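PROTEIN DESIGN WORKSHEET
SECTION A - STRUCTURE
LENGTH: 333
TOKENS:
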């Protein structure tokens, strides 16, 4: 399940605004509870909570509709899964066909006759959105996107089957890293000859493809393209949230603290992720909001974790010491 950002515009009036805030809070709480049940693998229970949330907010964002479809697919509730996918396609004009076809969470519903009907609607959406695109460049970026994401989408099921530190997973990561190297060469050629392309000719997915490849590149490459990526941000050709993720990863690699709290890690001893070294933790939510990110607590809900600044600050010295050791090991490899 991938996260998407849908920007909704609405008119804020005094009385209706108060009501909307109340409903939004209730909706957020339901989505959080539904996601927790999903993490606990109670997919039937999770799907029911999502349905309650959509009654509170029928104009739910794309990422929640899509996650509900995936959850229902895993629960083998095919009709409900298609209901949410058709809302995404018909009402929210979703058109990411490659993602749809490669998401393993939807494997249970692909043989249904509605699958091709959904593809047809999304294909029409895609044609409308991409009618002014650079078709050759988009096709190239689509291939790069598939090579980047198709392997990474298999990480979770493979870890569950073989174990995070198994020889099978180590071999699989070598496949991912090889793809990353190939994609990095392709994207570097685009950036070095054309600069960062406008989203008006490559679209949101094309922009995300460039971001993913540079995000997965080595530190030297990230530093090289930092000025170009910063310029893309300033010209609205890179979403703020993606810049935040890129910048956090880059500065952490340089031995500094991240700014937006987007980067987490997990130790071999514990299955619970933790937030990597973070600057000015007390004000991180303000910075996240400026970059179009949800709050730290909302982000950590997906792992059923609690964000407590005081607790984090007490743990920070230990976290930084651990990361210093790991960074030194990586430098010596």
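SECTION B - SEQUENCE
RESIDUE ASSIGNMENT:
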């Amino acid at each position: 399940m991938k996260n998407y950002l849908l920007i909704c515009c609405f008119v804020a009036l005094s009385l209706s605004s108060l009501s909307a805030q109340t409903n939004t809070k209730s909706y957020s709480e339901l989505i959080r509870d539904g996601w927790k049940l999903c993490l606990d693998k109670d997919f039937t229970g999770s799907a029911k909570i999502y349905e309650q949330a959509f009654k509170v907010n029928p104009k739910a964002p794309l990422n929640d509709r899509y996650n509900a479809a995936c959850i229902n697919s895993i629960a083998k509730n095919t009709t409900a899964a298609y209901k949410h996918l058709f809302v995404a396609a018909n009402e929210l004009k979703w058109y990411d066909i490659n993602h749809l076809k490669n998401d393993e969470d939807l494997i249970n519903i692909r043989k249904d006759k509605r699958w091709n009907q959904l593809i047809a609607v999304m294909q029409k959406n895609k044609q409308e959105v991409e009618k002014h695109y650079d078709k050759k460049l988009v096709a190239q970026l689509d291939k790069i996107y598939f090579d980047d994401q198709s392997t990474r989408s298999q990480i979770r099921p493979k870890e569950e089957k073989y174990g995070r530190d198994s020889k099978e997973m180590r071999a699989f990561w070598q496949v991912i890293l090889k793809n990353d190297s190939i994609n990095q060469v392709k994207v570097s050629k685009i950036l070095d000859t054309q600069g960062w392309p406008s989203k008006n000719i490559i679209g949101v997915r094309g922009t995300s493809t460039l971001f993913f490849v540079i995000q997965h590149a080595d530190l030297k490459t990230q530093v090289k393209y930092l000025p170009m990526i910063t310029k893309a941000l300033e010209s609205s050709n890179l979403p703020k949230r993606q810049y935040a993720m890129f910048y956090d990863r880059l500065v952490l690699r340089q031995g500094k603290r991240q700014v937006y709290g987007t980067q987490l890690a997990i130790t071999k001893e514990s299955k619970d992720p933790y937030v990597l070294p973070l600057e000015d933790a007390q004000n991180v939510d303000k910075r996240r909001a400026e970059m179009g990110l949800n709050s730290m607590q909302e982000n950590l809900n997906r792992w059923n974790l609690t964000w407590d600044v005081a607790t984090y600050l007490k743990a920070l010295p230990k976290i930084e010491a651990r990361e210093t050791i790991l960074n030194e090991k990586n430098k010596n490899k």
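SECTION C - NOTES
The two ends are 33 Å apart (CA to CA).
The CA atoms of residues 122 and 301 lie 30 Å apart.
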